Amino acid sequence: MSSNKRKDSSSNKPATNRVVYSEFGNSSFGNPNSNAFERPVQELPPNQQNIRVQATRKGKGGKTVTVISGFQAKPETLADLLKKLKTQCGTGGTLKDNELEIQGDHTQKLVELLTQMGYKAKKSGGK
Description:
elongated; Translation Initiation Factor Eif1
């Protein structure tokens, strides 16, 4: 009978940075340069942006959501704007794909608020 003794795997240290292929001449193997993959966002002033405000129920389980689209701004700017609009409407909301979603039907109120802030806002679709 032959004795097959297995080596203890805890004594073998796994390789931490085993890069097989790296593009763009990346010198830091564990942390790729994320700046190379980011697209620059051209942030326009509010008076040059055409904003659409629309109430919809599609894909929301029957709940009405006001969608504000057409922004050309950085995500940080949109997050600040979203916070202001949510407090003015007294509801929740989220930021998805450069579109602001406010819970409930607040189209008229949001158009007024956005025009006061300097945006070119229009009500889109629906009644």
